[in-house]
């Protein structure tokens, strides 16, 4: 009898703790950001994931600025994106031609111009970037800098330019598009992967600095996505890179865009695609922020299981590399 009462008390206490943690997690969670009154700025907005994000936020009622280098492609994207506008009187698409990784003052001017036209930026999506898949020794020595500039500096400059406006208004979301190659080392991506690891480091560090200002960071880790960038890169891609990347499948830009927009609205730090994206995100989560108690519980309880699964993936990747190596060696002998 006494034991039963004792057990009841324990169970009640545990239930109270769980409920209060849940309550806490929902109350500290960032508020959902609606897009109906929002201005979304997208770099690399004239193609690939960037253009798909533009289409998605237009469908949800936002004003959009797309930043891209090539004037002709920018114009073409603007025309193409018109069809997604829902409220013609209240939604606009602004296109500004700028290289976001070249000169900081030019990026600052572009952001200033977009602020004058459509108001301060509520969500910045850093989607501009370039890919390079070659083995370390075959990589043009200048490409390490080039890729780092395009992917890392190209994310730093626009972020730096919008941040003062966001801090002043105590409102903002910043999205970084990293890659699955920014969560684990993949053959052929010594330049690209390193720059995407850097993007993740930037995201995680910046989140700690801007949280008091109610600004939330999202870092997306897309798998292979069917974009012009990938098609071009595949022409010279090592066989190892193709075979390893293929294990995650090929995804469409609008699928990735939907996930990015949804996660940014919710202020989720990690943003991933599919089941293997979830496994990778869990294994690679380290001390990354979590946006909900649910994420925390999942990561704590699944980390070691996911690590075990990762050995299977890695063993498979290594056997692909070994097979390609042997094929190359035997061809050399012929
Ligand atoms: C878009 O910007 C214009 C200002 O140019 C503003 O009048 C309008 O309300 C904005 N729409 C949205 C959806 O924020």
TrEMBL record:
Keyword check for Transmembrane: yes
Top-level taxon: Eukaryota
A Gene Ontology term for the protein's cellular component: endoplasmic reticulum membrane
Chain ranges passing through the membrane: 6-26, 272-293, 305-325
InterPro entries named among the record's database cross-references: KDSR-like (IPR045022), NAD(P)-bd_dom_sf (IPR036291), Sc_DH/Rdtase_CS (IPR020904), SDR_fam (IPR002347)
Subcellular location as annotated: Endoplasmic reticulum
Catalysis: reaction(s): sphinganine + NADP(+) = 3-oxosphinganine + NADPH + H(+)
Pathway: Sphingolipid metabolism; Lipid metabolism; sphingolipid metabolism
Enzyme Commission designation: 1.1.1.102
GO terms for biological process, alphabetical: 3-keto-sphinganine metabolic process; sphingolipid biosynthetic process
Keyword check for Iron: no
GO MF entries: 3-dehydrosphinganine reductase activity; nucleotide binding
Residues forming coiled coils: 67-94
Pfam families associated with the record: adh_short
UniProtKB keywords: Coiled coil, Endoplasmic reticulum, Lipid metabolism, Membrane, NADP, Nucleotide-binding, Oxidoreductase, Sphingolipid metabolism, Transmembrane, Transmembrane helix
Enzyme class, first EC level, given as a word: oxidoreductase
Family that this chain belongs to: Belongs to the short-chain dehydrogenases/reductases (SDR) family.
Function in brief: Catalyzes the reduction of 3'-oxosphinganine (3-ketodihydrosphingosine/KDS) to sphinganine (dihydrosphingosine/DHS), the second step of de novo sphingolipid biosynthesis.
Name of the protein in question: 3-dehydrosphinganine reductase
Organism encoding this protein: Patiria miniata (Bat star)
